[in-house]
Amino acid sequence: MTITAWVPFVFYAAAAALYIAHFARRGPRSGRTATAVLGAALVAHTFLIGMQTMQAGYAPLVGTTAAISAFVWLLGLSYLYVELTTDERAMGAFVSTLLAALSILPALNPAIDPRPALLRSPLFTIHVMSMLLAYASFALAFVLGITYVLLFKEIKAKHLGFFYARLPSLQVLDVMNGRAVVVGWLFLTCGLAVGIVWASQIAGSPDPRAQAMHPTDPKILIALICWAIYSFALFARRAIGWSGRRAAYLSAIGFVIVLLNFLPVGYFLTRSHNF
Amino acid sequence: MRLFAVGVSHRTAPVELRETVDFARRGLDVALAALRQRDLAREAVVLSTCNRAEIYAGAESDAAAESCGRFISEFNGVSWDALAPHLVVYRGPEAADHLFRVAAGLDSLVVGEPQILGQVKEAYSTASELKATGALTHRLFTTAFSVGKRVRSETGLGEGAVSVSYAAIALARKIFGRLKGLHVLVLGAGEMATLTATHLRAQEVGRLTIASRTLASAESLARDLKGDAVAWAAMPQALAAADIVVTATGSPDPVLTRAMVEEAMRPRRGRPIFLIDIALPRDVEPDAGSLDQVFLYNIDDLQTIVNENLARRGSEVQRAESIVREEVERFRAWMQSRDIVPTVVALRQQFEAIRQSELQRLEPKLAGLPPDARARVDEITHLIVEKLLLTPTEQLKGADDEATALAYADALNRLFKLRAREDE
Fold first, then answer.
1. Could you tell me if A102 and A187 lie in one domain?
2. How does pLDDT run across A55-72, given as a tens digit for each residue?
3. Tens of pLDDT along B9-25?
């Protein structure tokens, strides 16, 4: 089990190396190979998650580590969907690096946590999946935002170089960033709403974690802050023309907070979500 | 069969001469038909572009190259004395090397320009439709297409705009994605403005607005380019609505100040604007470029990009050339094997025939032998023939160059009285 747990990481790392090589040298063959290896990584990862589900009898979504694994899987799938529909591989170098880095955590700790009675509700699964899909969208928006800024700076400085030759147009990056934020915001809103309903259902439980389900818990508080930031990003783009660089910066800030919430807060600080 | 290429190009002939040597004027098909009528070559392809006029052909004799050169002069009505000093002949692998360089864009006036590969393809398909091509030219040209393709995909030889207007269009694409549907404003109605506006029109931009200090000239240019003209006073509103602005007025002072651009940006809600200042002296205050979402490029900036692209193309030349060398080597090996294969086959056939006839002759004496002994005799004679042929075959295939290979083949043909035939 411990060796199989490393399989997705190895594939993701290989895909990242290929995407970076493709980004640097722009060979059409290395690009297709990178996509194929990422596809293989996702198949292997799907297989692993499937095995864990069969073994445990429930989807492995309990605990931060399992959630990261599911997040990596969803982000990989979302990215692959975007790549195949837009035929644009430039983001792959950034996304697959993130995938490889994050997939180390579940590989180090592959044990599936037992599912406490508290989490047997289908609402829990919907809540977690929605939140993870939202975070995956925000990750894509973040990567799109970063690349937008890199390209913007090159064009503005009249120094057309590395990114100019490799990235799609500013317009495309901006529109895709906007879409990713919309999709992410919808999932985040849904995830939070389901989370609130579910928390109210378990409010009577003696479990201390159910007692801590309150907006002042760090994990919940930061999720709400995220929601506020992305809501503002949506509003600002439509109402006051905050597109382009400003939108890019907002989605970068948003995703940094998402990551903070995911890793340090998820592992050490929260009292309500430490399953 | 001897492969050769003969013709003139921008490297060998002045423009006055190239203008008169133009096969396309009377049609490539006419040229190919005339070439065939004179029976100058077994197979031929005529390549004619504004920078070159060349015949690639395969013929039985080396003299065919000069005959084709004379054909070029006759067909185009240029005197032989005027043409001959500029005519270049490439023979054998050199012809392949030349065509591959042409197809790769290495021999073009602007190195790496992409049109030439299409022109080479067209030249071949025209010749092929008229059944003027054969196995040799087929292999030569299909290899040339793949050289062109490889150079484009494996090197940066064709990358980056190498003219100011294309550099501006490439930049606009990098900012806006597609140019379709964008609103272009042109300030000025002079020569430069007309040229750039025509270029942008060809990119299928959505709307073209022209503003000039004299409304009449703006209106006349607008009519030509199916755009609309606005009075100079209405320019600030047009500015606010435009995505791409080309300034090319003759004004001694900037016509667009930072304040004007700032004002125009206000109602745009962050929609970017691309200012292309191709006027000298400049039409846009350089300071305007520091505004958010404003991309300002003047003629010098664009020229710098063009120069960088040209330099980058230059550094890619070596990589392209190594691809050409590789493919020429492969083509040369193929040609050589083509030259010697019929000889090798004929030689083997002759040896085998001798063996068979000797076995036949000895049949009465062999008849008394037990079957396995007879089989042994057959095997031994076969092995002797194989051993005798091994070294000469290897030597023939390993010949350093085409001339040696042909000389060997020729010697074998004579020594053994072979009747080697070239398979087409």
1. no
2. 887 777 777 788 888 889
3. 999 988 888 888 888 88
Out of B175, B177, B271, whose CB is closest to A155?
B175
Task: Provide the residue range defining the domain that includes A30.
Answer: 1-115
A-chain residues within 8 Å CB-CB of B310?
none
CB contact under 8 Å between A243 and B159, yes or no, is no
CB contact under 8 A, B304 and A158: yes
Topology, domain B2-157: Beta Polymerase; domain 2 (3.30.460)
Q: Identify the pLDDT of residue B123.
A: 93
Q: How does pLDDT run across B71-85, given as a tens digit for each residue?
A: 999 998 899 999 999
Q: B244 to chain A, minimum CA–CA distance in Å?
A: 14
In this structure, the number of other CB atoms found within 10 A of the CB of residue A56 comes to 15
Does A152 share its domain with A273? yes
* Domain locations in chain B as residue ranges: 2-157, 164-306, 330-415
Please give, rounded to a whole number of angstroms, the shortest distance from the CA of A143 to a CA of chain B: 18
> What is the mean pLDDT of the segment spanning B259-271?
88
| pLDDT, position B363 | 87
Q: Is residue B332 a contact partner of residue B402, using CB atoms and an 8 Å limit? A: yes
Bridge partners of B237, per DSSP, are: none
The parts of chain A modelled with pLDDT lower than 70 are 1-2, 266-272, 274-275
Whether residues A126 and A258 fall in one domain:
yes
| DSSP classification of residue A114 | P
> Is residue B370 less than 8 Å (CB to CB) from chain A?
no
A169 with B175: Cβ contact below 8 A: yes
- Closest in B173, B177, B270 to A242, CB measured: B270
Q: Are B211 and B234 in contact (CB under 8 A)?
A: yes
- Rounded to two decimals, the pTM is 0.71
**CATH, domain B164-306, list 3.20.20.370, 3.40.50.720, 2.60.40.2550, 3.10.420.10:** 3.40.50.720
DSSP letters, A220-259, are HHHHHHHHHHHHHHHHHHHHS---HHHHHHHHHHHHHHHH
Quote the percentage of chain B above a pLDDT of 90.
46
Residue B177 and residue A172: Cβ atoms within 8 Å? yes
